[in-house]
Amino acid sequence: MRAKLFTAIAVLSLFAGIRSFAQHKDWAQFGRYAQANEDVTFTPKAVFMGDSITDGWDDKDQGFFTDNGFVCRGISGQTTSEMLVRFRQDVIGLHPKYVVILAGTNDIAMNNGYIELDNALGNIISMCELARANRIKPILCSVTPSAGFGWRPEIKDAASRIEELNGMIKAYAESEKIPYVDYHSVLRDENGGLPAEYSGDGVHPNLDCYRIMEKTILEYL
After folding, report:
1. Burial of 74 from C-beta contacts in 10 A (0-12 / 13-18 / 19+)
2. Residue 73, SS3?
């Protein structure tokens, strides 16, 4: 009887611990830019929303953002679902004129598990709808090219999945008269990946790559 009681207590303690961890985990990383958002003292011309591609941009070339009145709100590893959850805080709350959305790499990489491309697109659409409802002009970007993900070697069709999602993003952008920035066509190699001259790991841009992306996006801003 006592053994059963101890077992029941242990199980309840385990569930309590799991629940406590879940309650304290900042799943969408609201805390990442909470203080930075409070410290913004100007109205940004554009907020760049994205994952590590955007997150690394500010690290590689901070002057691109400060000199143009842009704000970087990329978080490494994030999927479109996480970006959508923090969109109100990290974009709408800053009242920019534009939001530049570059998202989808980590959905294809299954960072949070498998997700249909339709659902990833749905998250991107929701971000655009939230932006427009708050008088912010959305700009949609193609997912940058990659032939594979070093942290997900089991994914063998990254290049084709990226092209498929980009086609969906472009079609939506055209139907809604939203600018579509095609980084993919400018950067991809013959295998649909990111050339070694532009990236050390085939996914994340180096400074030379960001310079090309800067020239491309500035035509829309």
Report:
1. buried
2. strand
Residue 174 · residue 180 · CB < 8 Å: yes
Domain coordinates of the chain in residue numbers?
29-218
Residue 109 sits at φ, ψ, to 5 deg, of -75, -5
CA distance 94 to 181: 23
- C-alpha dist (Å) from residue 22 to 18, 19, 31, 185: 6, 5, 15, 41
pTM: 0.87
Task: Report the sign of the C-alpha dihedral through residues 114, 106, 43, 181, in that order.
Answer: negative
Which of 3.40.50.1110, 3.40.50.720, 3.40.1170.60, 2.70.70.10 would CATH assign to domain 29-218? 3.40.50.1110
pLDDT tens digit sequence for 4-20: 444 444 433 433 343 44
